[in-house]
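Severity: low
Component: inverse-folding endpoint
Summary: output formatting inconsistent between runs
Steps to reproduce: submit the following structure tokens with default settings.
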């Protein structure tokens, strides 16, 4: 059978938000891209992920002119509630740091990006099998795959972006000798539910109690997303609807504190927690973006925001890299062009290494916040009395002082002054 071959500037493995946003922003700069994705559109669109967007993430969606549903259907949140042992404390983001976040589920972000890319005639192969990348150390990297109809496909590019999620195949193409994997795990998971209930409160509630953590998030007027801390081995079917709501109500405090809105549960899932960083995020003609390069636990709602800040940092460096290939104006041999002595050709991949350093700088801040907020708000199964009281002290130090609150607000809303643009 004939193999279909495309020739583009950038081949992208992964059609989630990181891959599609990269493809769209490259196109805005006149750079061609093609995307290969293993899953179906439907599978990505129906997977529940966190729904909190930082302001620069919203700006990217609006600036990329892919429709402004985020502005009409998203909800601005000027604060959030932290609750400990049934006592609520509101963190007022606007008052503390002058910024908000937006509740706009990642499924909707994906839908907007996929619709825009396809409406603009962007090349994308959904449900691709046997995806492989070759030639990363050559000048002609290639993505090969079998398309949904069983036909072989081939994308020849100058550069490959690995945006293939937390179980990334691309990441493993960075040789072990040059790649460091930083990893930590947690002794708990989240039990996530989607239920037919209106919002319980105007803002999200992150709650902690003697029996652990719960989060009351939102989706729309009729559907609510909630989570509670559980053992990673929990069978979702072992919890009845009533037991789930009684437990979450207990974490929130009594009904006199807040009355949980209940409704028919339409989805139950257990989400394991992990923190992971790959360093570096580039090798030869490969760069990683989003979850492929780093994963955070969901407590800080940073996953999608980190993916978008990667893309923001990456796109100008790809432009620079491609200009360097054609001897364009954009490339000058900088101080980090290791190995390019006087008269030697500039190291063409230097912009990609600069991207890696810039991204990892932000990633580690987000790793710290996500790890810290996770440990602050969850009760580890082996937590002793000293650790428990220490953690309560830490919680009071955050909620009881404007400086503590500002630390939380600044981190949660995404560190102003740390933008890559
Ligand atoms: C969600 O809406 O699913 C969500 C919100 C905030 C988080 C995590 C998940 O920190």
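Observed output (run 2 of 3):
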């Amino acid at each position: 059978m004939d193999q279909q071959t495309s020739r583009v500037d950038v081949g992208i493995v992964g059609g989630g938000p990181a891959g599609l946003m990269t493809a769209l922003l490259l196109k805005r700069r006149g750079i061609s891209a093609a995307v290969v994705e293993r899953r179906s559109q439907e599978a990505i669109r129906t997977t529940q992920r966190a729904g909190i967007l930082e302001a620069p993430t919203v700006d990217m969606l609006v600036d990329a002119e892919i429709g402004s549903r985020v502005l009409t259907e998203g909800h601005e949140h000027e604060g959030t509630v932290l609750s400990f042992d049934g006592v609520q404390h509101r963190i007022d983001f606007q008052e503390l740091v002058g910024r908000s976040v937006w509740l706009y589920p990642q499924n909707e972000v994906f839908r907007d990006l996929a619709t825009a890319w396809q409406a603009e005639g962007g090349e994308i192969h959904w449900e691709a099998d046997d995806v492989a990348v070759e030639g990363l150390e050559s000048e002609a990297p290639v993505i090969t795959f079998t398309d949904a109809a069983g036909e072989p496909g081939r994308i020849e590019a100058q550069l490959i972006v690995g945006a293939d999620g937390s179980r990334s195949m691309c990441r493993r193409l960075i040789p072990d000798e040059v790649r460091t994997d930083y990893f930590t795990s947690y002794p708990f998971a989240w039990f996530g539910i989607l239920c037919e209930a209106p919002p319980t409160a105007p803002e999200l509630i992150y709650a902690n109690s003697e029996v652990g953590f719960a989060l009351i998030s939102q989706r729309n007027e009729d559907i609510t997303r909630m989570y509670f801390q559980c053992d990673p081995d929990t069978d979702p079917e072992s919890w009845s609807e009533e037991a789930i709501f009684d437990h979450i109500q207990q974490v929130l405090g009594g009904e006199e504190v807040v009355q949980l809105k209940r409704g028919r549960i339409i989805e139950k899932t257990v989400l394991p927690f992990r923190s992971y960083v790959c360093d570096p995020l580039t090798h030869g003609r490969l760069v990683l973006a989003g979850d492929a390069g780093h994963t955070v636990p969901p407590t800080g709602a940073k996953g999608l925001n980190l993916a978008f800040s990667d893309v923001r940092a990456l796109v100008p460096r790809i432009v620079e890299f491609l200009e360097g290939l054609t001897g364009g104006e954009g490339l000058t041999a900088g101080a980090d062009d290791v190995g390019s002595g006087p008269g030697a050709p500039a190291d063409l991949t230097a912009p990609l290494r600069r991207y890696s350093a810039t991204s990892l700088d932000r990633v580690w801040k987000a790793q710290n916040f996500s790890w810290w907020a996770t440990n602050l708000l969850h009760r580890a199964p082996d937590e002793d009395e000293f650790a428990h009281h220490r953690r309560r002290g830490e919680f009071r130090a955050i909620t009881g002082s404007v400086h503590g609150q500002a630390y939380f607000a600044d981190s949660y809303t995404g560190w102003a002054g740390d933008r890559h643009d």
